[in-house]
Amino acid sequence: MAVEILKEKYRGSIREVTLGATKEEGGTRTHTVKVGGETALPFLHFEGQLPNRPVVAMEVWDIAPEEWPADLKSYYQDVMNDPGAWAKKCVEEYGADLIAVRFKGADPDINDASADDCIPVLKKILESVGVPIILYGCGKAEKDNEIIGPLAEATEGENLLLGYAEQENYKPVASAALASGHSIIAQSPIDINIAKQLNVLIQELSTALVDKIVIDPTVAALGYGLEYAYSIMERARLGALTGDRMLAMPMISSIAHEVWTKKEAFLEDEPNWGEQPERSKAWEATTAMSLLQAGSNILVMRHPEAVRVTKAHIDDLMKDNSY
Amino acid sequence: MLVIGERINGMFRDIAKAIREKDPKPVQEWAQKQEYMGAAYLDLNVGPAVPEKVEAMKWLVEVTQEATKLPLCLDSTDYDAIESGLKLCKQPAMINSVPAVQEKMDRVFPMAAEYGAEVIGLAMSEEGVPKDTESRVALAMELVANCDAHGVPLDSLYIDPLALPANVGQDHGPEVLETLRQVKLLSDPPPKTTVGLSNISQGTKNREILNRTFAVMGMACGLDSAVADACDEELMAAIATARVILNKDIYADSYIEIFMAQNR
User: Which of A134, A142, B24, B181 has the lowest CB atom count within 10 Å?
Assistant: First the structure.
C-alpha cells in the first residue's frame, strides 16, 4: 500500500521586505535584497514557497575594535581603521550579503561621536559597497535617539534597515524611517507578546511601515538560552503561517553581538576548551545555523570563516527538497 | 471562531425595504460595517420581503459583492434561490443550510460540490429538533456521510446542533454544547461547527449577554463559527478574548483591536 505523505498547508505567509534602493528607486545601491515571503516553515520546500534565501550581514564598526580576539582581528587588520575599506573587504572577500554598521564610537563612554561625526562614515561605506546597509547605533537608547534622525535624513531614499525600535522607544526610529524612506528593526526582549504589540504600535504610527518591519526577537548565543530564543521564533513563525499578520515579518538575528561577548568565544587562554580560533568560529556558526532553523532571515555575523560555512550551509538548505 | 455577519436579512425592516425597492445602499452599508467589525462571512437572507426569492437573492449577491471582498453565506430554504446566487458568487460561498433530510441533502451536496461551496448542516430531521445529544450526533453523522458521498470535503461541512431560546428550551443548552464536542469525533478531518448565535436569546431580555456567553461557552467546546451580530463590539471582544485563552491567537496588549481590525 502506498504511504500517504502528510504535508502541512498554511494559510498565512511571511511578508516580503525589500532592503536597499537602487538608483531608479531613489538610492545608490547596485542591487536590493529581498527577505521573507515564505509560505512554509524554514527549508521545508515540500510544504510551500521559500522565495528568498536567508542572508548574512557582516559587522563593520566606526572605530577599530581593539577588544576583539587576535584571530578575529587578523582578518580585518588592514582595514580596521577604515570603515569603507572594511565594508568592501567583507563584501568582496568574505561574501557579505549586507553590511551592518555599528556606531560604537557614538557611545558617550567611548568617543561620544556626534551625528556629524557619524554621517561621513556612513556615506563612505555607502560609496564603498553596493549592498544594502543595516544601521545600528551604539546601543544606548538616549544617544541613539540623537543620532538616528540625522543619519536617516543624510541617507534619504537608501532604504537602510534602521535599528532599533523598542516598545518604550519606537517613535524616534520609526519616525526617521517614515520621513526618509528606510526600513526598521523592531526589537523585543525574547518576548513574543511584546514583539507583536510593538508591530501594532508601529503600524498605528503609519500603516505604510507595516511592510518595512523586520523583527529582532533578541537571540541568545549557544549555551546562553539559545533554545529559549529558538522557541520564541518558532512560535512567532507558526503564528504567522497560521494567519497572524502582526507577527508575519521577517526576522533578524544579531548573532555577532551575542556570541562574541561570551567567554567560550573570546577567551584565548583556556586550553581545555580547545583552541580559541576554532572554538569561536564553531560557536558563531553553530548559533547561526540553529537560528536559521528557527526562521531567521538575516544573520548578523563577524568571523569570516563562520560566515563561509554558514553560507555554504544555506546553499545546501536552499536546495529544493520538494516531492 | 469565525463570525458570519447576520445583518443582511429580510427579517430586518430596512433590508426588506431595500430589497423591495431595489435600493442597494442599506445592504452595502451593512456589508461594509460588518466587514469593518471583523466578520469573516456575510449571511444573505431574503426573508419574507418578497415572494420571488430567486431574483431577490441574485440582486442581494450582486450588490453585496460590489461593496465587500468577504465570502458570502447564502441563507434560504429555497434551493433554487441559493443556486442562482452561487452562480454569481466571485469566490466560494457557504450554503445555509440543509437538514438531515435525504431529499434535501440530495439537492444541496451535489450543488456544493459543483460550486465548491461550504455547507451548514442542521442536526434536525423531518421530526424537528431532537432533544438529546445522541440524536443530534446521529443526525450529524448522516450529514457527514452524505457530504463525503458527494465528494464535498468534510471540513467544508459546518454542523449546527441547533440551539433553542434559553427561555423555551433551557434543557437543550448542555445537549448543544456536548454535541459540539462529540461532532469533532465523527470523522477525520472532522466537520466544522456553527450555531445561529442569536437563537439562544430569541424572545428574552438581556439578549446580548446571553449571546456573548453562549459564544465563549461554545468556543470552549470547539465551536468554529456562528451566524451572529458582528456589530456587537462586546461580542467581538469576548470572542477575541476566548481565542487568546484557547491559545488560538498569540496575546498582545492590543489583541482586541487586532481581532476587530483583521479585515481592514
Answer: A142
